[in-house]
Write a structure and sequence with these properties.
Two copies of one chain form a homodimer.
Chain A (H helix, E strand, L loop, with lengths): L11 H11 L3 E3 L6 E3 L1 H20 L3 E2 L5 E3 H4 L3 H7 L2 E12 L6 E3 L4 E8 L4 H11 L8 E10 L13 E11 L2 H21 L6 E4 L11 E8 L5 E11 L1 H5 L3 E3 L5 E3 L1 E8 L1 H10 L16 E5 L4 H20 L4 E3 L7 H10 L4 E5 L1 H6 L1 E6 L5 E5 L3 H26 L1 E3 L3 H10 L3 E5 L4 H11 L2 E6 L7 E2 L6 E2 L2 E5 L3
Helix pairs in contact in A: 2-6
Chain lengths: 491, 491
């Protein structure tokens, strides 16, 4: 099974694609650029959804649902937004099919042309702020703290499963506030929620920071981001939170009366995280045997595999396995008993490794005699035989250890591959040789940023929030700088 | 607040619309026929989703996600399906906008025309069976038991919030089986799941049955349905489960090798339930004061409202309210403490009645002295003062009682409005005077069915599963019949 994976170090891109397909996460569909998310991949998305949804609600947000369609004219209202978003998108122009008069199947009915074309949402700021206009009159109507789970479409030319697809699933938060301070606070609160989620659930260390002018969300005054390092040395933007100022309120004329009776435009934020995170999960942790899922996001935390020679042995092992399964599930640990009868134990070992199940329990005839089980952890592939009596306690501890170990491993990898660079020659050399994060000084000008991008294909991933000020000179122009910023080639 | 509702008995349609708007469930959007589901409405949908999802998983199903777009040619593959579905739908013809050369905003780029138009899914059988083709080779790959939570679009001309909108949210199950028997069993299993959900969670009695040839899902051999009676005497189809035979397998060439090595087409089912159920919830239970939510689907089961004259009283009451809230939440009962300071208690009573919160707890200064609370149930609007000591026990029992009472009330209403009719004059008279369900004999011919529809605007809602055979004569044609079927005017 695993031998069909391309070697990760030989061809990372092919390894990634093989893994997505062979671990049954997703596949390309008949529609160009759109994927089918298969049950195992979707089960990971459900885990991600459940945790994020809980975190959003714990921070006072509620869910709602806005239309899939956006009237074309809505995009033109916010100038920067239309520049960034309205170009590559799916456009609905007609609303009826009919039987071809020449008998050639069905055709678009030319009489059913829409007066105004509808865009499939690439993001929902415009349609949502058009609704908020009717919801907000006074400061008493604020804040509005809404999140939406939805599908969006961006007509990408080059697509890759999970990382870049025409249609993808995501959540998009859209909040409205009475003051600039409050909106700013919300923007930061949500990037912190994303960072918390990435580190504590995805086991993915991230660098929090804000985007430069040129990398900002179309229509935002500030974009906060969390940036993660993948195993091939490229960065992946894992979630963004935008301070939109009063731009959308102005565009859709959303004003409110403040406590003093003064009329003002409403302040806005938006923030989103998508199925792309499943790509990040794979690229950050998986190996040549397959996925390595952090226990907190694994559809099954434990798989039990029986080894037997006779039907009688299988019956006895099954009895024991079911007992262990029930026992673990009572403690909140999801377990699969893999008793598929058409595969060898070896095949099942490989299959469950491919699928990244954090813990494998193997029960054979000798285990019945000795009252033991064999436990194999996916992250290190090490084995241990333990007594049946201590299962729950051991597995609970082991799952925590695995979750932490995956995180520490990714953190070490990132630390080993973060370079503080002061010379331009070194900058490009590192990128060409091994990639990774580069912390370097930048003179703050868009021109230099653009030239660096042209010459090295690296972009400023973010201006990190937690980095101290430091006098230095721009790695490219030599002009003075007060802070290092984070460069990398990226997905 | 409630006084702004149109009287239910005067204008049912207007009452319904008023209620959806004023209870903050949903509103029309800027896009024709598409609604915005507001947070309170969406919270009910989340409750519906959680329960159904649990029931689907308990019956062995898993979730997945398939593309929003369906290539036009896919529809033509299954002849009956295209007749039923491909007509009124949203059609994507282009994938890019551009700046108008004359400076008039943005326009559709004529160079970005799709080679083949894409239909926004009105239902996903075709795109899913096109995927299943690659997933199924042998009987070992079966069954496939997949559900999808998704948005779909049907370009309806006359729309009504929740009941009929261009875009709506739903779940659609699509299963694949090795035998006809198994597929048939699945079809029935899922209509039973829907009936269980309707009765035990929505407090909505339903009649299970199958559709006549002319009312069947486009492409199905059998369509099972659950039919509920609304308070205006009209029927509402609340969920359907389809036995698709081998139609889609043939259309998409999905064959498998059975246990004997023989090649055969795969057997299919599909089943769906949508946000329309929120409309049913309203129309079945609500009254002139507003919604009456069954506790099991209420976003908040309990609201606590303080009555106070001084800040000091409020502080004391809040302390008690928070304690009660925590206590109830520990028992799994969701509670809202409505301490909004800009509204009178009376306004809050009306607002929470409008929103259908099952139980209202009122705490005033005298309650502090007496160690009591006042409890008002939404379904009957009756009050009772109880001791604080017995709160949890009392509220848990009361919520069960309310859930059951709402069901019994709806059941009594349905029984009172189900008529066994043998004469055609009586048939039309009942429909015109009071509506309701009519159980009558039918000769089994589509011609008679069509004539009955023309003359009475009533359709055969279903041929009930639990009705005994009975010799009789068709209420319209007088020809012999062996079973009564269910007629009604419907949504």
């Amino acid at each position: 099974m695993a031998k069909f994976l391309t070697d990760r170090d030989e061809n990372y891109a092919q390894w990634y694609n093989d893994l997505v397909i062979k671990a049954d996460l997703a596949e390309n569909s008949a529609v160009r650029g759109c994927m089918v998310i298969k049950p195992y991949g979707y089960a990971i998305w459900e885990k991600i959804q459940a945790e994020l949804d809980r975190m959003f609600k714990a921070t006072g947000h509620v869910n709602a649902y806005f239309p899939l369609f956006i009237p074309k004219s809505f995009f033109t209202r916010e100038a920067a937004h239309v520049e960034g978003f309205a170009k590559e998108c799916a456009i609905v122009t007609h609303y009826r099919l009919k039987n071809d008069e020449k008998g050639k199947g069905i055709v678009v009915d030319p009489d059913a042309k829409l007066e105004e074309e509808l865009i499939i949402r690439p993001t929902s700021e415009t349609i949502i702020w058009n609704s908020y206009k009717n919801w907000i009159q006074s400061y008493r109507d604020l804040p509005i703290l809404i999140n939406q789970w939805a599908n969006v479409v961006r007509w990408e030319m080059r697509t890759r499963l999970f990382l870049r697809t025409a249609e993808f699933l995501w959540q998009e938060g859209h909040t409205a506030h009475a003051t600039k301070e409050e909106a700013n606070e919300e923007t930061q609160k949500m990037i912190n929620v994303y960072a918390d989620f990435a580190e504590n659930f995805m086991a993915l260390p991230v660098i929090k920071g804000y985007k430069t002018d040129s990398e900002r969300f179309a229509g935002a005054l500030d974009t906060y981001t969390i940036e993660a390092l993948m195993q091939d040395g490229k960065a992946l933007q894992a979630g963004t939170s935008h301070f939109l100022g009063q731009n959308f309120a102005r565009a859709f004329d959303v004003q409110f009366t403040d406590k003093t009776g003064k009329l003002d435009y409403v302040w806005a934020t938006s923030w989103g995280l998508s199925t792309r995170m499943i790509g990040a999960l794979i690229m950050a942790h998986a190996d040549n045997h397959g996925l390595v899922l952090p226990p907190r996001l694994a559809p099954y935390k434990v798989v039990i595999i029986p080894i037997f020679r006779s039907e009688e042995q299988l019956t006895q092992i099954t009895e024991k396995a079911v007992k262990i399964k029930n026992q673990l599930e009572t403690a909140g640990i999801s377990v699969r008993y893999d008793d598929r009868d058409n595969n060898t134990p070896g095949w099942k070992f490989a299959d469950n490794e491919l699928k990244g199940v954090p813990v494998r329990i193997v029960i054979g005839p000798r285990d019945l005699e000795n009252n033991t089980i064999e436990v194999v952890r996916r992250d290190t592939l090490t084995k241990k035989t333990i007594s049946t009596d201590e299962i729950n306690c051991y597995i609970i501890g082991l799952l925590d250890e695995i979750q932490n170990n995956i995180y520490q491993k990714a953190l070490k990898f990132r630390n080993d591959n973060t370079h503080y660079v002061d010379k331009w020659s070194e900058f490009t050399e590192i990128l060409d040789k091994k990639g990774g994060f580069i912390m370097a000084h930048w003179d703050g000008s868009p021109e230099t940023e653009e030239k660096i991008k042209e010459e090295s294909k690296a972009t400023i991933r973010c201006i990190p929030m937690d980095t101290p000020d430091e006098q230095g000179r721009c790695v490219f122009s030599g002009k003075p700088s007060t802070k290092r910023v984070l460069f990398a080639r990226s997905y």
